[in-house]
Automatic annotation (TrEMBL):
Native organism taxonomy: Bacteria, Pseudomonadati, Pseudomonadota, Betaproteobacteria, Burkholderiales
InterPro entries in the cross-refs: LTTR, LysR_HTH_N, LysR_subst-bd, WH-like_DNA-bd_sf, WH_DNA-bd_sf
Keyword Transcription: yes
Name of the molecule in the record: LysR substrate-binding domain-containing protein
Record family assignment: Belongs to the LysR transcriptional regulatory family.
SUPFAM superfamilies linked to this entry: Periplasmic binding protein-like II, Winged helix' DNA-binding domain
Pfam families hit by this protein: HTH_1, LysR_substrate
HTH lysR-type domain span: 6-63
Organism: Caldimonas mangrovi
Alphabetical UniProt keywords: DNA-binding, Transcription, Transcription regulation
PANTHER family: HTH-TYPE TRANSCRIPTIONAL REGULATOR LRHA-RELATED (PTHR30579:SF7), TRANSCRIPTIONAL REGULATOR (PTHR30579)
Amino acid sequence: MSRLTFDLDVLRTLVTGIELGSFAKAADRLGRSTSAVSAQLKKLEEQVGTPVLRKAGRGMVLTPTGEVLIGYARRLLELNDEAAHAVRGTELHGEVRLGLQEDFGEGLLAHVLAGFARAHPRVRVEARLARNAELLQQLQRGRLDLTLAWRLDGRRSPHARSVARVPLCWLGARGAELPPPSKSEPLPLAMLEAPCLMRDAAIAALNRARIPWRVAFTSPSLAGIWAAVGAGLGVTVRTAIGVPPSLQVLAGLPGLPHAGLDVHRADAQPPPPVSRLEHLLAEHVQALV
């Protein structure tokens, strides 16, 4: 049996189409015609020997084989891109001061920043984990070059662009039953200290639904909130990104808005190391959502 060797361009088309939710959009992004994209996908299925996509309504979704393949495809493309940037990017040098929300600290620090450091060993990266208000304040004061920050109110800094819209959700301890809130037993909340965009969204949703609530636990850090919710001290509101396995998304509580996620730059035309890291951050976040 001959060895199967995948075409990375074809895998990139598959991954892009799934992430954008449309292979027509993938064709535009990749600079190909829709007929060329169709030909690529047909070639891929002929290589694999079984369908990797199936029709669902007016679009296409992955088959079980496709779900297996796309995980490997992302890893192959990631390694390919890292190698390409490593051999092309050795000239990059300088410093990037990066600010991150705690939601993204573990994944981005271990994944994106590690790969960036390998590809660009002459660039020094300083990372800071903090809350939204502090990150934007440090950016405005010139102490950060780049940051990821949540947005609920439509406001953003002068040099920002949207990278994702993520639904907020109610979170509680896994396996715990949530008793119906009442005047005698209001819903216990575990929340970050004010000001907090997601705290405000939770309280506004409960007030609109006329559900009694009380703040049972506050913390200046997200790690403290995860611990309190996992211990059953209350429920909280966050996105599903970075949620520990001890927690679960809760149903039956009022609907919540989406949170925008923006990448902010200190300068309109940042130096090449900042631009490169900004691109990698945006790619990673878009893959998460």
